Amino acid sequence: MSLLTLSEVTRTVIPPDQPALTILSGVDLTIEPGDHVSIVGRSGSGKSTLLNMLGLLDLPTSGEITFDDRPVKAYSAARRDRLRGAAIGFVFQQFNLLPGRTALENVTMPLLYSTGRTFWRRKRIAAEMLELVGLGHRLSSMPDRLSGGEQQRVAIARSLVRGPRLILADEPTGALDLDTGQSVMELIDEVAVRTGAAQVTITHDPTIARRARRHFRLDRGVLTPVDDPSLEPLTRRDRRQVTPDAEGSGAADSPDADADSTLERLGLRDQSTSSSDAPPVSTERTDS
Predict the structure, then answer these.
(1) Does 42 fall in a domain?
(2) In this structure, what are the phi and psi dihedrals at residue 159, rounded to the nearest 5 degrees?
(3) pTM of this prediction?
(4) N or C: which end of the chain has fewer CB within 10 A?
C-alpha cells in the first residue's frame, strides 16, 4: 500500500484580471513507506505549490491525491487537518521557533493537540526527542541563545515529535552554512530511518538532493525523474554555494563519508554502536 500518491495532478490559479495560470501540470508521484525522494527545482518552478499538495494543504484543480490509498478530496477540511497533524512533519528553511519559549516548550507545542497518555506525557516525549537530536543539554535554552544549526535541530525535533509517517523538508539547509547544512541533513536522514518515516526533500541544491534514493526535477510545473540531480544545470546561486574546497575534497561525491563521526558529534550514535544496531525511536501516534 502506497503512503501518498499524486495522479495527474494539476494546479491552476486565476489571478485578478489575468488569464488562468497553470502552476503544476499532470504531476505523477508515488511515495512509499520509508521512501526517500528529492525534488530539485529553480525558483518559480512550482516547488511551493507541490509542497502544499504533498502536505495536504491544498487540493488539486484536477487529478487525484490519495493517502493510504484513500482519496484525499473525500476528506473534510477538518479531517485533512487532523491527518496532517498526526502523519506529516514539516521542516522549513526558516526555523519559525516561538520567541520567549524554551527549546523544550517549542517542541512540546504540537503535543498540546494530542489526547490521552500522549498529552500527559508531552514534556517527557519532547525531552526525549531533543535528546535524540543532540540537544538534551539545551532544554531550557531560548532560541536566541542557540546557534543556527541548533535552532534547526529544535525545529526538526518539533516536526517529528508526533511520530509523522512523512517528513517534508523544504530547503531545510537554506539558512545554514555548508558544514552545518550537511550535519542537519545527516540528522534528518538518521531520524527518518529510525522512525521508518518517508522523506521528501525539496531543494535547489543538487548536493543535498543526491542524498535521496530517488530523484526528480520540477521545471515549469512538470515533474520528471532524473538519474543524478548533480548532472542537472546549476543556477547561479548553486554555483556560489559549491566552493572550490568542497569540489576538490570530493565532498559532493561522497556526502556520507563522515556520517558516523557527525552522528557521534550530534549525540545520535555511540561510538560502539552501528546504525543498524541503533534502537528505534519510541514515539506514539494518536489521532487528535
Answers:
(1) yes
(2) -75, -20
(3) 0.73
(4) N
Residue 287 lies in a domain: no
- Assigned domain for 12 exists: no
In the chain, how many domains are there? 1
Distances (CA, A) of 240 to 181, 183, 208, 222, 246: 15, 20, 15, 26, 12
DSSP helix/strand/coil, 12: strand
Q: Give the position of cell 525511536.
A: 281
3-state secondary structure of 204: coil
Rounded to the nearest 10 degrees, what angle do helices 178-195 and 148-160 cross at?
Answer: 20
Question: Containing domain of residue 43, as a range?
Answer: 34-56+77-266
In angstroms, the Cα distances linking 274 to 89, 220, 261 are: 26, 42, 11
Return d(Cα 207, Cα 192) in angstroms, integer: 19
Where helices occur in the chain by DSSP H, the ranges are 47-54, 77-87, 103-108, 116-120, 122-132, 148-160, 178-195, 206-209, 236-241, 244-249, 259-265
Q: What is the pLDDT along the chain (288 residues), one digit of tens a residue?
A: 789 999 999 999 888 888 888 999 999 999 999 999 999 988 888 998 999 999 999 999 999 999 999 999 999 999 999 899 889 999 888 888 999 999 999 999 988 888 888 889 989 999 998 988 888 999 999 999 999 889 988 998 898 888 899 999 988 888 777 877 788 888 888 888 888 899 999 988 888 888 899 999 999 999 999 987 665 544 444 444 444 444 444 433 333 433 344 344 434 444 444 443 444 444 444 443
